[in-house]
TrEMBL record:
Keywords from the UniProt entry: Cell membrane, Membrane, Transmembrane, Transmembrane helix, Transport
Record's signal peptide: none
Topology of this chain in the membrane: Multi-pass membrane protein
Protein name: Probable membrane transporter protein
The species this protein was found in: Streptomyces sulfonofaciens
Top-level taxon in the UniProt lineage: Bacteria
Family label: Belongs to the 4-toluene sulfonate uptake permease (TSUP) (TC 2.A.102) family.
Length: 250
C-alpha cells in the first residue's frame, strides 16, 4: 500500500481512537472508519481496520471481562451471523465505489440512529429485558449489526443503541460490548481473508498501527469515569456526519 507519512499519521491517530472507543465510548469507531476509508481504498480499508479493531477488543475484554451479560450475547449471535453472511455476499458483488458509498450512507444512518438514541434515552426510561418484544428487537438489531460490521466495521452504534435501550449500565454495557465485538470481529477474519481484504501487506501495516491502540485504550480506561459523555457523543456525531458526507461526495 502506497501511503505517505501524513497518511500513516492519520491512520495511527485513528488506531489510537479505536483503543479509546473500546474502553470508553463504544461507537466512536465510526470516526476511525471514516479516516481509514478516506486514506485507503474503501473496500480494502475494511480489511486493514479489522485486525486493529480486534486488538482493541482484546484490550477491552481484559479490562471489562467480568461485566458481560451472556444471556444477551447468546440472544444476539444467531441474528448477527445472518447479517454477516448477507454482508459478505454484498462484498462479493460490490466494487470500491459501491463500498465507499455504502460506508458513507451507513455512517450517516448511524449518526441519525445515535441522535435518536440519545433523545429516546433522555425522554423515556429504557425497557428491561425479556419477552417476545425483546427477542424481536434483538433479532432486528442483530441482523443490522452483523451486516454493518461486515460491510463497514460499523456495527458499534447499532449495538450501542440496543444495549442502551435494554437498560445496561456503563460497566455491563462495556463488558457485554467488549465480548460481543471480540467474538464477532474474530469470526469475520476468514470471510475477509477469503474476499482478499486481508493479506500479507495489510497485516504488515496492521502490525505497525496496532502499537497505537494500547495508549488509546489506556487513556480510555482512565477517562471512562470522568468523561463528559454528552459532549463527546455530539463530537462523534459531527465527525461521523462529516466523514459520511466526504465519502458520499468524493
Amino acid at each position: 500500500m502506497d501511503i505517505t507519512l501524513w497518511d500513516f499519521m492519520a491512520l495511527a491517530a485513528a488506531a489510537a481512537l479505536v483503543g479509546f472507543a473500546k474502553t470508553a465510548v463504544s461507537g466512536a469507531n465510526t470516526v476511525s472508519l471514516a479516516v481509514f476509508a478516506a486514506v485507503l481504498p474503501a473496500r480494502e480499508s475494511t480489511g486493514v481496520l479489522l485486525p486493529i479493531l480486534i486488538t482493541g477488543d482484546v484490550l477491552a475484554v481484559l479490562t471489562y471481562r467480568r461485566h458481560a451479560h451472556w444471556p444477551t450475547l447468546w440472544r444476539l449471535f444467531p441474528a448477527v451471523a445472518a447479517g454477516v453472511v448477507v454482508g459478505t455476499l454484498f462484498l462479493v458483488w460490490a466494487d470500491d465505489e459501491a463500498v465507499r458509498t455504502s460506508i458513507g450512507a451507513i455512517l450517516l444512518l448511524m449518526a441519525a440512529i445515535t441522535v435518536w438514541r440519545r433523545r429516546a434515552v433522555r425522554d423515556e426510561e429504557p425497557p428491561g429485558s425479556a419477552g417476545h418484544g425483546e427477542r424481536l428487537k434483538a433479532h432486528s438489531y442483530g441482523v443490522l449489526g452483523g451486516f454493518t460490521t461486515m460491510v463497514a466495521n460499523a456495527g458499534g452504534p447499532v449495538m450501542s443503541l440496543y444495549l442502551l435501550s435494554a437498560g445496561f449500565r456503563k460497566l455491563s454495557f462495556l463488558g457485554t460490548s467488549a465480548w460481543f465485538f471480540l467474538i464477532v470481529n474474530t469470526s469475520k477474519v476468514p470471510f475477509s481473508a477469503g474476499l482478499g481484504l486481508i493479506d500479507g501487506h495489510s497485516l504488515l501495516l496492521d502490525a505497525e498501527l496496532a502499537l497505537f491502540v494500547l495508549p488509546g485504550a489506556l487513556i480510555g480506561k482512565v477517562c471512562v469515569a470522568r468523561i463528559n459523555q454528552r459532549l463527546f457523543e455530539q463530537l462523534v456525531i459531527a465527525a461521523t456526519v462529516l466523514g459520511g458526507l466526504e465519502l458520499l461526495l468524493r
